[in-house]
Amino acid sequence: MSRNIFDHLLGNDSLFTNKEVLHHGFIPGNLPHRENEIESLVHNLVEALQGQIPSNMILYGQPGLGKTAVTRHVCKQLLQRGATLGRTIHTVEVNCCSVDTKYRVLAQLANELSDDSRKQVPFTGWPTDKVLERLKENMESLGGVHIFVLDEIDHLVKRHGDDILYPLTSLNYELRNSRCCVIGITNDLNFTEMLDARIASRLGSEDVAFSPYNSKQIEDILMQRARAGVREGVLEEGVIKLCSALAAQEHGDARRALDLLRVAVQKADVAGEEIVSTEHVRIAQNQLQFDQMTPVISGLPFHQKLVLYSILLNESNGLTNISTGEVYSVYQLTCQNASTTPLVSRSIGNVINNLDSLGLVTSKTTSLGRYGRSNRINTCIPKNINAISIMGESDEAMKPVINATYRLQSRL
Ligand SMILES: Nc1ncnc2c1ncn2[C@@H]1O[C@H](COP(=O)(O)OP(=O)(O)OP(=O)(O)O)[C@@H](O)[C@H]1O
Ligand SMILES: [Mg+2]
Predict the structure, then answer these.
(1) β-bridge mates for residue 148, sequence order
(2) Which of 14, 153, 393, 407 gives the lowest tally of CB atoms within 10 Å of its CB?
(3) Which pTM value belongs to this model?
(4) If you measure from the C-alpha of residue 61 to the centroid of ligand 1, how many angstroms do you get, rounded to a whole number?
(5) C-beta 149 within 6 A of ligand 1
(6) How close is the Cα of 99 to the center of ligand 2, in Å?
(7) CA distance 183 to 177
(8) Using CA atoms, how far apart are residues 25 and 383, in angstroms rounded to an integer?
């Protein structure tokens, strides 16, 4: 057979034995260092196997800490045990980031509980009460205990308020032939503060907080995945340690660690190398930072780009801990070059807060005693990312701003 350009990545010489295992969608059969969290879920959900109603729960924790993986793992085992014990249990998971209106969440719950195509709730168009009625009908006709997992629930509540949670957490008062338990998952640690007190107390009767993994724990997680997905002996010593240490710095994020390891192995694979070194991890780290930051910078609205550019200009002029006033005076110059009217100075604080929440700058308020308060602003964009060229390439209107010359004042 003649050689094909895909062969070197397909053949036995790939460094991966099963790349899918290193993807974050993959859920391994056991989840090291989540024994306590799993036990909390099991403790509550066992009620479904005993003919009782499990309490509603909220699972908290920063991104990549295994909340979704743990919940899926526990639900899978629950369904398996339910089947052997002859208990009727249904689990439905909805990701509220992609299904993000009350109507669509209720419709998805209802539709997943019915395979009768004539009974499907349409994508839009029904009154919400009718969708809720259909959901109840479907729950009753199947019977048993229904576990509804609302993943990334804070997205839904932030956009549309918490009204969906009231009917969902009230279902048990109305159902005759079935029961329901809601598990909300969120990485917003202040989630319950967004909720009406009655809903918060109904939903959060059992809270489970996921703590960040430390570097040693991430190593264990990576070793398990590497054994299943990467050829034996190709990871140089220190590769897993470095991926784990870098991910531990980012709030102990196992997803980040898996990404680093997968991209590092891929970089070595594509380069036709036999060994994955810590250098490949560094390259992977740069690549991931670039992939993460580029859309954030290029997607900024125009005036936010101008403000970010003004902070960068101040920094290139040797300033650090820049004040809002210093940003504003350069921003006014950038507006002249862009032939646009500047925002009023008091809006700049909001723009800077937004840049801070996107992880592009840090802004700290310091007290000047009786002289009031002042902001100290610094960018925190990794050095390998050229934010100015990203802004120029993503927005024609930035070009005259970037090409202009600025006579900036330095501090006395
Ligand atoms: N204890 C663990 N053992 C093995 N893999 C894990 C463990 N914890 C997390 N992972 C893996 O890390 C990745 C991220 O986990 P998961 O998606 O569950 O995070 P999450 O807490 O739901 O994050 P987010 O809040 O961003 O949704 C997944 O690939 C998951 O398999
Ligand atoms: Mg998740």
Answers:
(1) 92, 182
(2) 407
(3) 0.84
(4) 11
(5) no
(6) 14
(7) 21
(8) 30
